[in-house]
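Render Protein-tyrosine-phosphatase in 3D.
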Amino acid sequence: MLNVLFLCTHNAARSILAEALLNHLAAQEEVPRFRAYSAGSSPREHQQPHPMALQTLAHAGISTQGLRSKSWDEFAAPGAPHMDVVITVCDNAAGEVCPVWPGHPATAHWGYADPSEGNLSEAQQRDAFRQTLHAMGKRLELLLSLPTDKLHKALLQDTVRTLATP
């Protein structure tokens, strides 16, 4: 099984959506090949997942059980799950200096606009979260549809970066 870590700055919206969605989609495979996690480069003190992210997931029938905001330091610590793929989902996190991940995982940047940013009405924000989840779903379905030979460590770097282009 390949471990995928989705990174964003606060680990409250996009990375949370990606973690939950990939775990949901992978669980539907006959033999799940992926396990997703998420983290932030600088989550705020007492940071929680954005309520609209949790509502969007629940409305889509995706479990929110166990989702929490956490620092990427948690995954760079001894005893943390080994990551095979690390994907930044916001432009701020993509430009930051990441920890050195044990095992040198494949990395990619899959940028998405922040659905919680801006002066949006509640309806507009709800729509922005749905659109983000939908866009992520398309890319994650492509990842899940890849044949196993494309997921071999030697090819993984090019494979995940290729999926970054819409």
